[in-house]
Amino acid sequence: MLRRFIAQASLPQRYHRYLITQQHSPNSFRRCSSSSTAATPPSQLPVETSVEPPPEPHFSDDYSSKPSASISVDRSGLNNPIEHSHESLADSELVKHLKSLIKFRGGPISVAEYMEEVLINPKAGFYINRDVFGAEGDFITSPEVSQMFGEMIGVWAMCLWEQMGQPNRVNLVELGPGRGTLMADLLRGASKFEKFTRSVNIHMIEVSPALKKIQKTTLKCNNEDGADENTATTLTGTPVSWHSTLEEVPTGLPTIIIAHEFFDALPVHQFQKASRGWCEKMIDVGEDSKFRVVLSPHPTPATLYLLKRCKWAQNEELTKLEHVEVCPKAIDLTQTIAKRISTDGGGALIIDYGLDSIVSDSLQAIRKHKFVNILDDPGSADLSAYVDFPAIKHSAEEVSEDVCVYGPITQSQFLGNLGINFRVEALLQNCTDEQAESLRTGYWRLVGDGEAPFWEGPDEQTPIGMGSRYLAMAIVNKKQGTPAPFH
Ligand SMILES: C[S@@+](CC[C@H](N)C(=O)[O-])C[C@H]1O[C@@H](n2cnc3c(N)ncnc32)[C@H](O)[C@@H]1O
């Protein structure tokens, strides 16, 4: 299957995408900017957000009886919010909304609540009303860098479908499809494998009305009767439907789930070690009417997730940390995925910017291809955090014995072992000089800086790319065996 697919080379019509991205500075990549910046954890970037000290002294409780984790959590005090006006004439709708949330809540909100409002507030969230990708947008993702990315994900999906015994009907779900480019490239690349393409029902999980519209155009969907704006058919007859959550996708069919740069958009809670124990970082409004970060004076509900995450960590890992991020939504979503795969069969592929360890302090904001302060003009910049891959693995294993988790491996290992080298060579056989240059650039952006031995030139000239900073993990029903290329 791999070789057969990779040899069937064709270039799509929308090839100019490369030319647009090439005009960008290296900072155009969403989480992977120039080599020096990309190698630097966001907490060391010059946009660090200062944290106000806690309002009063507190004591700590000791949770050292936990088997592999020993942390103390601040449990003291009642919250006494300071009275101040939150109004400012120049505030955007979203800023006014955030300030009123804080005001009516009677105190600060968690970083996670702030992040969720900033990204997907139904009226003014960052993703809701516009196209944030590409040269005119705020950042660029792998499917927008090269057609080969979606094609290789298609190879992965087809291999899994083969391992599933080539079912006649299969749900192909994409979480957070952006412009729909990955899915369009996947379908175009797989178009010669009619048995596969005929079997798929596509389900797009998307909250943004603006992006849904773009996805319909990218997938060349027609909606002849216009009766339901959440269902359509591609020109080649593949049914597509849109949902807000994975739970809305009908059960009962084997399911293949793709999540590329989705988990990093899920809201994270941030904790900081203080003399009184671990305190949650919260977003408040200062006397000057500006947002500021404060430490919660009392334990917060998310502390339960901190304890859970710490149980999965090694003591040595924990003792070094001054900050920890936890993502309850990632844990919950992973468990929904794992349960679905264990009952319906199939597997999920998660590719994201992240770590194979607990995550410390990674939340970052990007506007117009530059890092900015996370509190600066919320709603106008993307917020994202490193994905905690061990937490995903443990979450899946916790809810089902019928699934197996593979990886994480680096993006360059993943794409390399699936055969991206053969694919680029096949495409290079049949293209103009300009296209060849763009293909090579796209290739190195996807696999550059990776651990796979693709680069044969001098070390100091190793191309910069997303090859090692992006990781791939698969959650697969045990019946399917080990998925490619995690052997
Ligand atoms: C960083 S973009 C990734 C887009 C695409 N996967 C790509 O690689 O180009 C995140 C995507 O997830 C969507 N999204 C973010 N949070 C979401 C949520 N809670 N539920 C559903 N979709 C969400 C955004 O609208 C967007 O389509």
UniProtKB/TrEMBL annotation:
The keyword Methyltransferase applies. The keyword Mitochondrion applies. One of its GO terms (molecular function) is protein-arginine omega-N symmetric methyltransferase activity. It is found in: Mitochondrion. It comes from the Eukaryota. SUPFAM superfamilies: S-adenosyl-L-methionine-dependent methyltransferases. Arginine methyltransferase involved in the assembly or stability of mitochondrial NADH:ubiquinone oxidoreductase complex (complex I). Acts by mediating symmetric dimethylation of 'Arg-118' of NDUFS2 after it assembles into the complex I, stabilizing the early intermediate complex. This is Protein arginine methyltransferase NDUFAF7.
